[in-house]
Amino acid sequence: MTDADRRAMLNKVPYVTLYFWIIKILATTVGETGADFLNMKLGLGLNLTSAIMTVALAIVLVIQMRSDRYVPWQYWLVVVFLSIVGTLITDTMTDELGISLYISTAVFSVALIVTFMFWHGIEHTLSIHEIDTPRREMFYWLAILFTFALGTAGGDLVSEKAGLGYLTAGLIFAGLIAAITAAYYLKLLGPVTAFWLAYILTRPLGASLGDLITQAPKDGGLGLGTMPVSGIFLVIIVALVIYLSRSGIDSPNRGRGPALASA
């Protein structure tokens, strides 16, 4: 077995397919609706909800980090909890600390850029096909956390602060993702840049979708409620993860793939 084969086998991030993006958007939506459900519907409050979810995230992250290869249910469980915690971080800054969405969006943008700078400076790559050491994986998850927090702040900034509404905001973010995809295929963007831009933008897209479905009609939503939407989306995520586990179509051993998959 060559060193390249060994590193590919131990890569901790899935081969990026359409299923990857579907689950990512659903997990993002669950992060938005789930945080609102625990905080408001169950009445736990923002601080208690944040504490509980942070502990849960730490537990699933330890399980993920202890594994020596990609395991679908472990990977996506971390993504779901990161989505929830990322949402709660932004909500805490906005609702508890009174920090403007303009400031939080700027802060998380800088934090993400700094993370990428250190990651690339130390590891000389930002490729998700080479998440094969604990240090690279820590950089990866830290970047993911900041993309969720940034996406939450940016999404709220566009949909609520700018007053564009959830539907319009969702269409804007979907259009930006489509433009990035087109730029990638036209070779105007490299795979790493295209992947991370798309990853960041799927957060506000999913959040806008979640708010559109769950918020009351008077607030511009459909009023379906956070509990049923979170439950349905979680069931879909579980079904897709089971399918991926059995089929193995997102195994990192498949190699480098197309369309924002070659990051």
Automatic annotation (TrEMBL):
Signal peptide: none annotated. The keyword Transmembrane helix applies. InterPro entries: DUF347. The chain crosses the membrane at residues 12-30, 42-63, 75-93, 99-119, 139-158, 164-186, 193-210, 222-244. It comes from the Bacteria. Pfam families: DUF347 (PF03988). Keywords: Membrane, Transmembrane, Transmembrane helix. This is Membrane-anchored protein. It comes from Tsuneonella litorea.
